């Protein structure tokens, strides 16, 4: 926000050498479920993505989509580059923010400034390519036994797609999702996209440094800022914990719901199959609605509406037993 003065800013390069840019290794990961997918994408089960009253990251929103089932598989290609970092070396409230805090108190200050401020900005580039396959293939499962094996299965020495990977993708229903900060336009064809991912570092460094973009912001609580006031700042730590907990539970319930709906539309047989699956679907949908209601209350009333003692228990074992019986 505009509540901290930004007069004392230090910038430094993220890497060394002529190419510039500190870089993470180009990673190729195979995820078998939503939890592994969120980890590979570098996101948590964000309340911002789960509950629509926040503006969450696109990666987190994708990971929390409700149409994944337990049979979905995800091949993720990712890399992050840091070119430079801008850091606030000292913190001081703006004159207006300081006056609000002293004259009107912490609640008014929170309404204008929130509970945290941006203390650093990191620029560079990030790329995450997600290939979603509704049914895992034997070739990918075998190659995914090691990160090195998966990378060599996908990339040739020159960065192009291998013939083995090409054969697999030609016979598998694959959807493509790309999340990128910095760099050039993403190729539409899968083979070209694979090559682009392999050379992504060069897309945001050296002669292409102008294509770098903000990739992360580091925030700090206002409690680290000298305020000149005896008033204490409002902390929303309890709200964040509660919303993150609800987001994780909501994501687990959504996966179970997808599997139950898939089972209902399949040709499986078990006693009273349709009735039992429909009842289970109603139960999970009701549980998710209660989570969403609690999240809404917590978002609207951060100081009184975020009771961490209230839990929403998903009877996962019961639904997994039903799925085994009725699939």
Fold topology:
Elements: E1 9-13, E2 22-23, E3 27-31, H1 34-40, H2 47-50, H3 58-63, E4 73-88, H4 95-104, H5 106-113, E5 116-133, H6 138-143, H7 147-154, H8 163-170, E6 174-181, H9 190-198, H10 200-204, E7 213-221, H11 237-264, H12 273-300, H13 316-326
Antiparallel strand pairs: 1-4, 2-4, 3-4, 4-5, 5-6, 5-7
Helix pairs in contact: 4-5, 11-12, 11-13, 12-13
Description:
The protein is an alpha+beta fold. 42% of the residues lie in helices and 19% in strands. The chain has helices at residues 34-40, 47-50, 58-63, 95-104, 106-113, 138-143, 147-154, 163-170, 190-198, 200-204, 237-264, 273-300, 316-326; strands spanning 9-13, 22-23, 27-31, 73-88, 116-133, 174-181, 213-221. Strands 1, 2, 3, 4, 5, 6 and 7 form a 7-stranded antiparallel beta sheet that branches. Helix 4 (95-104) runs antiparallel to helix 5 (106-113), helix 11 (237-264) packs antiparallel against helix 12 (273-300) and helix 12 (273-300) runs antiparallel to helix 13. The protein is flat, with a radius of gyration of 24 Å. It starts with 8 loop residues before the first strand and ends with a helix. The relative contact order is 0.15.
Rg, rounded, reads 24 Å
**Low-pLDDT residue spans:** 15-19
- What pattern of helices and strands is seen along the backbone? EEEHHHEHHEHHHEHHEHHH
Gap between N and C termini, in Å?
52 Å
Q: How much of the residues is beta strand, in percent?
A: 15-25%
Please estimate the helix content: 40-55%
Q: Looking at the structure, what is the overall shape?
A: flat
How many helical elements?
13
Return the average pLDDT rounded to an integer.
81
Number of strands: 7
* Class per helix and strand makeup: alpha+beta
The description of the largest β-sheet is: 7 strands, antiparallel
């Amino acid at each position: 926000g505009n509540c901290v003065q930004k007069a004392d800013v230090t910038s430094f390069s993220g890497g060394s050498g002529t190419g510039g840019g500190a870089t993470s290794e180009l990673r190729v990961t195979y995820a078998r479920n939503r939890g592994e997918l969120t980890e590979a994408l570098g996101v948590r089960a964000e309340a911002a993505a789960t509950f629509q009253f926040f503006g969450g990251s696109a990666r987190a929103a994708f990971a929390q989509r409700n149409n994944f089932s337990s049979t979905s598989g995800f091949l993720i290609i990712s890399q992050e580059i840091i070119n430079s970092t801008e850091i606030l070396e000292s913190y001081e409230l703006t004159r207006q923010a300081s006056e609000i805090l002293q004259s009107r108190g912490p609640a008014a200050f929170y309404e204008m400034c929130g509970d945290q401020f941006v203390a650093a900005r990191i620029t560079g580039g990030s790329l995450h390519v997600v290939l979603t396959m509704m049914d895992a293939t034997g070739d990918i499962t075998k190659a995914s036994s090691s990160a090195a094996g998966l990378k060599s299965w996908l990339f040739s020495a020159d960065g192009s797609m291998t013939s083995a990977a090409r054969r697999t993708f030609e016979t598998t229903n694959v959807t493509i999702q790309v999340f990128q900060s910095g760099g050039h336009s993403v190729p539409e064809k899968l083979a070209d996209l694979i090559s682009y991912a392999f050379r992504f570092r060069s897309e945001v460094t050296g002669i292409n440094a102008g294509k770098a973009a903000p990739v992360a912001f580091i925030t700090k609580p206002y409690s680290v800022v000298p305020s000149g006031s005896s008033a204490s700042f409002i902390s929303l730590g309890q709200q964040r914990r509660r919303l993150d907990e609800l987001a994780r539970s909501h994501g687990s319930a959504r996966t179970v719901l997808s599997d139950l709906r898939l089972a209902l539309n399949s040709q499986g047989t078990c006693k009273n199959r349709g009735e039992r699956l429909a009842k289970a679907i109603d139960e999970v949908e009701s549980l998710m609605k209660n989570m969403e209601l609690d999240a809404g209350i917590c978002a609207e009333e951060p100081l009184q509406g975020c009771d961490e003692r209230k839990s929403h228990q998903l009877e996962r074992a019961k639904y997994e037993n039903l799925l085994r019986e009725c699939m």
